[in-house]
Amino acid sequence: MNTVFAVTLVFVGCCSNVVFLELLVRDFPGCGNIVTFAQFAFIAFEGFIFEVNFGRKKPAIPLSNYVIMVTMFFTVSVINNCALNFNIAMPLHMIFRSGSLIANMILGIIILKKRYSVSKYLSIVLVSVGIFICTVMSAKQVVSITMLTFALLMSARMGIFQETLYKKYGKHSKEALFYNHCLPLPGFVLLSTSIYNHAVLFSQSSPVEIPIIGQSVPVMWLYLLMNVITQYVCIRGVFILTTECTSLTVTLVVTLRKFLSLIISILYFRNPFTAWHWVGTAVVFLGTLLYTEVWSGIHTPVKGEKPDKKTE
């Protein structure tokens, strides 16, 4: 029952989040900083109450390690937001972020000297080809593509650093979620001008009446509120899923969710997407599914073999 609930949270929360994000950036492409700040502040506030018990609970992982992780996390978030300033299409943005698993694998080979099966190396080629096709078809967005590529590699490096911390201190995903969103908050002072300017613009947007309370609020503030809530629902759903299912199942659900979000973005918002973009997208997701060994994972229960151990 918890698994079904978690999957529902992931699909409803994450897909809705994409919709409200696109509603925001469609009118204000540079609003990424205020959106990120609102998300960070909300998750940090919730974690301060329910995770660290108003600061009384000491972290299991030393704060010095979190500072390093947070620096990378904050950098990735800001660069992704800056890429949106160049009016990059949301579908292309999602395709690049779908390559995070493969980027993590490549850096794992270089930094941790890991070795993988032939199928996983093939998945690298497929994802790389898919992203290359989509990139070529969006060649006019060179600056934003460069920024997304850097953010992708930085995110993968952060994932490797997080993996080494978990091996040393144990898995503390809720704690990491809190500190990753709390410690960067002072850094938003550097972005205060952008945040303030967009707050003013949001306040000047068209009013919309909220049926339950009968009050009118600027529509952009409503979109922002819904974006923050759905982002939280999405993250909570993924967290529950990791405690209930195997890592394979979690990866498959997240991958399918990204694909559904992509379809919604293309069809509902009529984003430009050529036949070659579709080919590139299909190759990216095929490579991702190949990496997660979905087919063997499905084949194993059919044969009555023992499933993978659940993610802790």
From TrEMBL:
Molecular-function GO terms, alphabetical: UDP-N-acetylglucosamine transmembrane transporter activity; UDP-xylose transmembrane transporter activity
Sequence intervals crossing the membrane: 37-54, 66-88, 94-112, 121-139, 178-200, 220-241, 248-269, 275-294
Cell compartments where the protein resides: Endomembrane system
Source organism, top-level taxon: Eukaryota
Keyword vocabulary terms for this entry: Membrane, Sugar transport, Transmembrane, Transmembrane helix, Transport
A UniProt-annotated Pfam family: UAA
Protein name: Solute carrier family 35 member B4
Taxon lineage: Eukaryota, Metazoa, Chordata, Craniata, Vertebrata
